[in-house]
Input
Amino acid sequence: MTASIRSLAADLRQGKTSAVELTQEYLQRIAQFDDQLNSYITLAPDRALTQAQAADERIANGDASLLCGIPIAHKDLFCTRNLATTCASKMLANFVSPYNATVVERIDASGAVTLGKTNLDEFAMGSSNENSFFGVVKNPWDLNCVPGGSSGGSAAAVAAELCVAATGTDTGGSIRQPAAFCGITGLKPTYGRVSRLGMVAYASSLDQGGVMAKSADDCAILLEAMAGFDPKDSTSSDHATTHYSEQLNESIAGLRIGIPRQYFNEQLDPKMTALLQTALVELEKLGAQLIDIDLQQTALAIPAYYIIAPAEASTNLSRYDGVRYGYRCENPTDLQDLYVRSRSEAFGEEVQRRILVGTYSLSSGYYDAYYGQAQRARRLIAEDFAKAFSQVDIIASPTTPGPAFGLDSKTQDPVAMYLEDIYTLAVNLAGLPGLSMPAGFYDHRPVGLQLIGNHFDEATLLRTAHQFQQTTDWHIRRPSLISGGKA
Ligand code: GLN
Output
């Protein structure tokens, strides 16, 4: 069951298996293992089997893309028609969207089979998947550890082979950090590369949908199906897409990789430094050139992000008022009571904290001191990267400060949780693409190397990761939970 999309597509064409059989196999694995992980919120077996039947027909007619018949999962932040979209919140626990997200439409059109919707931190706010109304997700490499967040369900499901690949969303690291913690490959594309239509908004100027899979090759195939201009999303870019999966075999000889001094400094755990250095040497062996660079404004990323994201969240989440969408409290005494109780009863603690922080920083009198200042910091961060990309082609960094941390070890200390995002946030603030790929093990837990690209240069990130994955096997290892073996 460690099959790649290409090998499964070949098996489907050679009649070694069918999409229906494959779908049944994955549904069976979910039934067997997901009690331990809680990676899915909603399963869609009937819908999946209907899609699989249609996929088998397309394959038989010779009219099928590589994704046709491949069982995937969607983070439960993407709207799906006729299938619940909960955002892991009590607020939307019974919400069924009247339309599909563009990402879902495009993946459906490719013929892929949707097994279900994966768990996440409520409204994508979190770094551990402990903020879900539907319960904590566990890391398949160590059931006492978090899978990362917010796309922790997608990451755990891919790592445990409860789907072949999955969608995720990344506002400040939610694809890359759980990918690193679960030993898979995850790509957050450039802001605007993938349509946000039907992707429930958290922080609109930062949110971006992307892909999570075992390998860069699988990520490239899935991204190809999703990426591209969407006339229905005004922030979607009309910059031309490319055939990501066809450029993976080009060598990376001569590629200039920037190594930011501010990321590999004495604050990074020495064991992490050693592991990541080994991965960098591997890239050097492939012909890449490592160049020390500065990203002077790195320290601004956490404060800027944790002002801007809550500010945008506070306005985006004002639509959940007990009137138009979702949960409504019982027997309200008047309109004010309806608003207050619906929101207090249905939003979790972290979501309420962010709404409060956001409302405060946007209020008159504080706007300039907080929100205005954070926007200035954001511009400095973007300029920092622009300068770096005049010297190098991509940048390499840790994805996270360490491996997956213990369940409940940071839930009482929100700031400690926010500090976990130190290496991922700046990428979203600058709108750049970022990828995390498996780069070794810290004790028995996976760690990721992050690759950051220039705007719309997803192809170079995927190619670098693919080349790395041709000479390393970190991405092939599977947790003992499912393989019976050890990493
Ligand atoms: N951990 C960050 C946060 O809590 C990022 C989340 C995300 O990317 N959706 O906001």
In short: The longest strand covers residues 434-442. The pocket of glutamine is lined by residues 124-127, 150, 170-174, 202, 309, 421 (CB under 6 Å).
